[in-house]
Amino acid sequence: MKIQIIIGSVRLGRIGPELAKWIKNALEENAVEAESEIIDLKEWPLPMDDEPGLPALGHYDQPHTKAWSDKIAQGDMVIFLTPQYNWGYPASLKNAIDHLYTEWANKPALIVSYANRGGGKAAAQLKQVLDGIHMQTQEDAIEIKLSECVFDEAGAITDEGEPLSAYRQLLMTSVKRMITKAY
Q1: Is 49 exposed, middle or buried (0-12, 13-18, 19+ CB in 10 A)?
Q2: DSSP string of the chain, one letter each residue
Q3: How many separate domains does the chain show?
Q4: Can you tell me the distance from the alpha carbon of 149 to that of 138, in angstroms, rounded to the nearest whole number?
Q5: CATH number of the domain enclosing 70
Q6: Per residue in 58-87, is it b (16+ CB within 10 Å) or e — as a string?
Q7: How buried is residue 155: exposed, middle or buried, by Cβ count under 10 Å (0-12/13-18/19+)?
Q8: Residue 166 sits in which domain range?
Q9: What pTM does this model have?
Q10: Which of 138, 83, 128, 130 is nearest to 103 (CA)?
Q11: Bridge partners (DSSP) listed for residue 136
Q12: Per-residue confidence of the chain (183 residues) as pLDDT tens digits?
């Protein structure tokens, strides 16, 4: 069983990598019965719409799309980690999703959004897309309110009290549901 944690932002100065590490550590510390892997879209340059065919047909010409297909096919479930930019999720994440189709189908998915107020609008938009590609989305997204978190000078999360303990509890409950759906 493999959980892929996809960092949806490629922006400079982003905190997605720190939050992805926090998610991965939470999974490991809570002895989740699944391997986890962080996939940073910044390391996956996927040009916009450069495949001649429809992704639903599964025939890819570009080497980067074939590699992306192979990577996503290795996972059993996905945690999409997305910031909220201007009330939506980043184009980098939409583009990465749109490069493929069947590789996503029927996999359990969890959305973890973050913004000053939690990123609920981005999560709602992303959920519509994930439902459209037939992923098994969790009913409730986890919305991390950055205004309630404490970060050190290096950008690492330092607040392990409230509210992160509550987010960790929601994360673990959702991941356990995802693992049940994957079996």
Answers
A1: exposed
A2: -EEEEEE----TT--HHHHHHHHHHHHHHTT-SSEEEEEEGGGS---TT--SS-GGGT---SHHHHHHHHHHHT-SEEEEEEE-BTTB--HHHHHHHHT-STTTTT-EEEEEEEETT--HHHHHHHHHHHHHTT-EE-SS-EEEEGGG--B-TTS-B---STTHHHHHHHHHHHHHHHHHHH-
A3: 1
A4: 24
A5: 3.40.50.360
A6: eebeeeebeebbebbeebbbbbbbbbbeee
A7: exposed
A8: 2-182
A9: 0.93
A10: 130
A11: 108
A12: 999 999 999 999 899 999 999 999 999 988 788 899 999 999 999 999 898 999 998 899 999 999 999 999 999 999 999 999 999 999 999 999 999 999 999 999 999 999 999 999 999 999 999 999 999 998 888 999 988 887 777 767 776 556 677 888 899 999 988 888 766
- Side chain identity at residue 168, one-letter code: R
